[in-house]
Amino acid sequence: MTRLGPFFVYSFTAAFAIGLLLSWAITHRQARQQTASRWRDAALTTLMVGWLGARLGFALLNWHYFAERPSELMQLWQGGLTAYGGLVGGLLGLGLWCWWGKRPFLSYATLFSPALVLLVATGWAACWLEGCAYGAETTLGPLSANLPDSYGVFTVRYQTQLLGIGLNLLLAAALAYLQTRKLAKLQLFPLTLIFTNLIHFGLTFLRGDTTLMLLGWRLDSWLALLFAIVGAMLLQYGRWKKVYK
User: Where are the domains of the chain?
Assistant: First the structure.
């Protein structure tokens, strides 16, 4: 956190704001090539509902805290977001916008796919700056370093945040390469959904931050696996219906 005059600037908020600006620029370039109508309205709806979903998910996971401090519930600039709350909210917002305007959901989801991967990488970067989503304690090795948790306690931990940044940037590059190989464009969204969630799924087993557990796994492990399966089903459904041409 730093201070600019009378304003406090939180590292989490600053990193995410940069990610949003870059995502907007990438989507703007993609939209010019695809001539998508009213994509800005779709993007704003997706972002707003996604942000509310991310905050709601965090509030539900930490309801014992917010029940005593309800005034902090909508202080979005202080961080406190959940990836899967944001994903569910964003998809819901985009789905409702497409349904209301009778527009093809998959076309707009495909348009926003590069931005989604970048936002995931930005989320890991924000956590690296803030100290959230920190790694579990381990021994010193190529994937570990002397790192703090969210309370500032240093020990040797897995570098989960840097792994999340690097793997998702590699994914973005791989998907961009597949586009140059004339991959059927509507396959981009299912592939994005599959691989971003498989990356998240793998990293959950290296994380040390506490969360809800279900049958011995973290809740976000189950959610990552669920969305990867949804992506695979969507990919297969599109092939079956011959949507990808």
Answer: 10-240
